[in-house]
């Protein structure tokens, strides 16, 4: 049976598949931040997403959306796979769009899912070996097979998350796509830019339209979405690092520590020290 250590990496324009121990240095450094990422484990391993540690057991998956920073430096000591894809690669139907632009990848925290169907042997048969064979049959066949492999990993967790959250079906997939592109941009840039105008310019819409779409899709204004991500990142630094509050305020883009303290208090109801001690 082919193992993660022996499998050659697979890389196309919108799809990547690596065994943990074979992830290229440049991908660890660049963090694949514009990709949707699925980590599949065959033994326990810790993964750090946005400064917060997640302990994955054997046969678990974690789903991480674009724009979120992952510390992948310790993956090479474990056994498992990293599967990455872009929206352009995966979206071929309305259902595809709804699946990836959902809380599976865009929830407040990454989704952990225990995958009882895909043990190591079954995973290698249905995913690893199929991808290896399809790679030898040309780009068209490979894209079809790779899409089906991603779909098989996503559907169960999507339906479970959707049922648990009682998530409404989006009426306009273009709108939900824009909102999640906005979310990706926020995660990448919120420490430098908190003005709605910056993101509207990147998305080629007016600030009014962006806010209206955000309200329709999420119930939040564009500005509140920006501040929500910013405070989430700040709280993760406060709770999960040993940095001083002054250092964290600088990391989060605040020039004055008192402004940072006031921001955290306004958004959470607690001062930074109380959050650290909780």
Automatic annotation (TrEMBL):
SUPFAM superfamilies, from UniProt?
Homeodomain-like
Q: What keyword terms does UniProt attach to this protein?
A: DNA-binding, Transcription, Transcription regulation
What's the name of the protein?
AraC-like DNA-binding protein
Q: Name one Pfam family in it.
A: HTH_18
Every copy of the HTH araC/xylS-type domain together lies at: 180-278
Key word Transcription regulation present in the record?
A: yes
Classification via InterPro entries: Homeodomain-like_sf, HTH_AraC
Q: Tell me the GO molecular function terms.
A: DNA-binding transcription factor activity; sequence-specific DNA binding
């Amino acid at each position: 049976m082919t193992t993660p250590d022996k499998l050659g990496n697979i890389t196309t324009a919108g799809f990547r598949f690596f065994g943990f121990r074979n992830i290229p240095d440049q991908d660890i450094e660049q963090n694949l931040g514009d990709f949707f990422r699925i980590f599949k484990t065959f033994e326990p391993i810790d993964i750090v997403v946005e400064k917060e540690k997640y302990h994955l057991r054997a046969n678990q998956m974690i789903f991480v959306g674009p724009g979120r920073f992952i510390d992948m430096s310790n993956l090479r000591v474990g056994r498992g796979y990293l599967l990455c894809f872009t929206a352009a690669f995966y979206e071929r139907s309305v259902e595809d769009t709804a699946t990836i632009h959902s809380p599976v990848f865009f929830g407040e925290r990454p989704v952990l899912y225990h995958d009882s169907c895909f043990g190591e042997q079954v995973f290698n048969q249905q995913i690893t070996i199929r991808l290896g064979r399809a790679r030898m049959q040309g780009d068209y066949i490979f894209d079809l097979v790779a899409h089906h492999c991603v779909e098989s990993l996503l559907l169960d967790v999507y339906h479970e998350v959707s049922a648990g959250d009682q998530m409404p079906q989006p009426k306009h997939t273009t709108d939900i796509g824009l909102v999640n592109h906005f979310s990706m941009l926020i995660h990448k840039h919120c420490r430098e830019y908190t003005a709605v105008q910056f993101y509207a310019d990147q998305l080629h819409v007016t600030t009014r339209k962006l806010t209206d779409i955000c309200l329709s899709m999420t119930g939040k204004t564009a500005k509140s979405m920006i501040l929500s991500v910013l405070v989430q990142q700040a709280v993760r630094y406060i709770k999960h690092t040993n940095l001083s509050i002054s250092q964290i305020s600088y990391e989060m883009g605040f020039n004055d520590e008192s402004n940072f303290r006031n921001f955290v208090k306004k958004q959470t109801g607690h001062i930074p020290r109380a959050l650290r001690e909780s």
